[in-house]
Specification:
The protein is mostly beta strands. It contains two helices and 13 strands. The longest helix is centred in the C-terminal third of the chain and has 6 residues. It comes from Shewanella mangrovisoli.
């Protein structure tokens, strides 16, 4: 028996979702979120394609069940609290550990795109905190070092 005949699928054709501007409560600089998807229960996975203009980045945040990033274009930086700022490039996979505060975004001179995949715990996939300061962003200085 062909499982596609008995399985229910959802197809969201490319270009049918309107991109949204990344809210200033969560991002610094110009950020565009597209292909946003949250699976219906009982699944709890969500994903988005996020485009960062040069100089744009997330605020500090954490994920109760972690987050996987796949860089698809450009060059960016990411940093876990207390750790070193790391350069990320197309093809790089980044696992952000459960509950660990971190940020990610484009470098100061290059745009960057990544696919972000995370699961929600009791309906919540992310906890947002304060903006990443220019000093931390540009120099890699980290709180808790």
């Amino acid at each position: 028996m062909n499982t596609l005949e008995t399985a229910s699928m959802t197809l969201i054709p490319a270009g049918t979702q309107q991109p949204i501007k990344g809210p200033s409560e969560w991002f610094t600089g110009e950020v565009v979120i597209s292909s946003l998807f949250n699976a219906p229960p009982p699944a709890r996975v969500g994903m988005a394609v996020v485009n960062f203009s040069a100089g744009a980045r997330t605020h500090w945040h954490s994920h109760p069940l972690g987050q996987m990033l796949l860089v698809t274009q450009g060059e960016g930086w990411t940093q876990c609290e207390g750790g070193e700022r790391t350069t990320i490039r197309p093809g790089d996979l980044i696992w952000c550990n459960c509950g660990k505060r971190h940020w990610h975004g484009a470098t100061a001179s290059s745009s960057m795109q990544h696919v972000a995949v995370q699961e929600a715990l009791e309906g919540k996939a992310v906890d947002w905190f304060e903006a990443v300061t220019d000093t931390v962003y540009l120099n890699g200085d980290s709180v808790g070092k």
